[in-house]
Amino acid sequence: MCPAHTHTTKVHPDDPQPRTSRQESFRQLFNFSNLALYAGAGLSIFDLIFDVAMVYEYFKNEKPQFARATLISIGLNLALQVAVTLIQNKKRKRRVKIREVFFVLTFVKPGIDAWRVVTKRKHHALNLFSPMMEYLLGKGIELVFECIPSTIIQVLAFVEGQHSAVVILSLCSSILTAAFISASMSIEKDIDKNSRRFSPYFYGFVNLESKVQSAVVCMLVLVLSACQLSSKAFAMALGASESATVLAAYLLVDMGFALMFKLARGDFLYWMRIEEISMRFLVSSAMRLCNKILIDFTGMIQMRHPFEYGGLYFSTVLLTTPLVSLYFGSRYLAYTEDEEVKATLKYVFSSNQIYGGLGCLAAVQLFSFSLFLVIIPPKFRTTFLSAQTGSQYACANFFRTTTDHGRVDIFTLHPSLSLPIKQEVKAWLNESLAAWIAEKPSWFNDQVKTSIFDDYVDQPEMLKQIRGEAGLEVEEA
């Protein structure tokens, strides 16, 4: 999820070409970008209302542990949203920080972030993330710390016999909200023009020239995410009902394997440009944990990116989730065969209900994923089997990109990712920099000027000039 650059209307040979009228007409008709962003923000607020209603329902039904868990998830979401907001605006004035924190605490931040993306708000030079990246981070935190936990809590309540209309309606709302946010995050990133320009071999599976194909792909991604969340949440709830110890052991082993997988490949540290090594390790740990949860519970397509977990790991998780849910379902059925156990439970699911329900979810999920792979352009199918590390992808993408405008995206990443090709990047940069300064292409904006690595510029005067044009000073060696 690399941050995108901002642009003016000045034309330059290396600038992006305008969209075709066919692409533009589709976007006006379907307008997924605006619709998804605003709908996602609205669903977030709507789901929060249901969460509050469920807190009351849990207390009324003498299930205070569910109520407390829901309140904790809401509190964690808010706390982390505030933390990200402060990190994003670390270099901004105090009044900006106060305003942004106010947006978070009044639950309007999702709408504000959506509005900034829709109106193409420029990436402020003092902000760490672009508006798109800030939006994606906010929705990711909401998914991991509120939507997914509240869904699991509601499924657990459902398994324990809470079958009132409020519970069922709230459960459906949580699954729909989480699936929609997950799907819209992946699709919005895919149709983003900068994503397609900087990474044309990864983004572009939504065909903007076909209304039917685009609509079908978007719907399949939504269904895939909803099935993944439902299957995984029921697996967790059934596992917790039978043996919390076995469930905890499974989760720890699964998460441990994922983190060891990244560490063993030298791919653990995240792509973000964070200079302090301790802070980078902390952020990387948090992002790896959160992204693992997003893969497991929502099947978010974006997580197949080499900067995240990669296509091969993503597809493996997606295809094994039905087996995990059926495993915990079988353990639940064996556990509830005991008459003494049945006597302590308010409701017991039959084998037909367990295998029928989980089997249907598995069938729909596998069908959706298969149809999705058939419909998308063939060149993107390999991204679901890729074993590239983040560094390998960054280096390969640099050489595959033929324009200067596309290649400068390498500077939005941490320098360690491009370290294997440092000399090649330095040579290209120093050969091109003088021409950029003289010709002033529209993409050579303040954001690009401030992102160029200091030690990659051979001439200190030239570095000082571009930093000065961007309103920054260069520290003397």
From TrEMBL:
The keyword ATP-binding does not apply. Residues 11-21 have a biased composition (Basic and acidic residues). The chain crosses the membrane at residues 35-59, 65-87, 165-187, 244-264, 312-334, 354-376. Keywords: Membrane, Transmembrane, Transmembrane helix. Residues 1-21 are annotated as: Disordered. The keyword Transmembrane applies. It comes from the Eukaryota. This is Uncharacterized protein.
